[in-house]
Amino acid sequence: MTTPLPATKPPLKLYTSIASIRQWRRQRANQRNSVAMIPTMGALHAGHISLIRSAAQTHDSLVISVFVNPAQFAPHEDLSRYPRTLTTDIEQLEALNTELSSPESSSKGRIEALFVPSVPEMYPSGIPLQQELQKGAFVTVTPLSSRLEGVTRPHFFRGVATVCMKLFNIVQPDEVYFGQKDVQQTVVLKWMVSDLHVPTKIRVEDTVREEDGLAMSSRNVYLGEKRRSFAACLYKALKASEEAYLQEVAKGATVIPRGILTGPAEKVLREAGSDEVKTETEYFSVACPKELEELEQVDVNVGAVLSGAVRMLPTQENEGPVRIIDNIILKGKVEAGSAGGWAPQDLRTVVYI
What we know:
34% helix, Pantoate--beta-alanine Ligase, Chain: A,domain 2, 7-stranded mixed β-sheet, alpha/beta, globular
């Protein structure tokens, strides 16, 4: 089924069936168009828009998916409360398409397809939230899926990997764009496409942040005014750890003990919150970039991934807890080529498989 959306030239189209989006993809293949995909669960924000703009610089045709994936929620989690704002999302995409299609734009491509499948379309066998009752084929990436976020959400990456494998198979994009905020997700998916020989490249773009450093997330709407004022505590902790790392590098250190990095972060997190706003640190990680194993010391020639999760507890009766996740990549050193010396290198380009 294909439903035209209001006034863009040529019109942005909404696809709700797998058969229709595959037909669209075949047409792009016949035209030799490069195709980029930005998978989302909707509730679009500036981070999503940034990914789309980046994809439009190098690809002819863009497809955006909006699908709130039940498989990555546990029975006690917020599937029913997850923000669903399709009308507003469409308005944002249409406005962005006008920008991308304007004569002043330097973009190569534009959004051509919005894929909004139903749950039965994506999970023909059904998808109860209880994992032991689920039927069908699922994808698990081990041991990555059981680390960090996987400790408190053991179901999560199984759901993410499964739905992304379905989307990659349905759309067959040349490249898929994700934000660095979900760093563990990007590592899991890179392992998945490598191990399963999927001919799709995973592209990771910088995290888009609010003015105080809080990483943009669709769940930030749950915070409310009181908690929002303290929500950047994790980012401040990560920056404190990064500063300690850079100070050691400047002193000429080649190996930095974990405690030097975690100490400043733990101090920031201990002091986070107030009498009204309570926070709980779920984890603060210093891990190797390739498999996210915890490190006792960081080799400055390799670098590391700092990441963490903080629960912001309810401040009133109608609120639930909100988890904040974030990360910073500690850049390793690589030779600076014929110029000699050393230069920092972004780990996204050198260590992710």
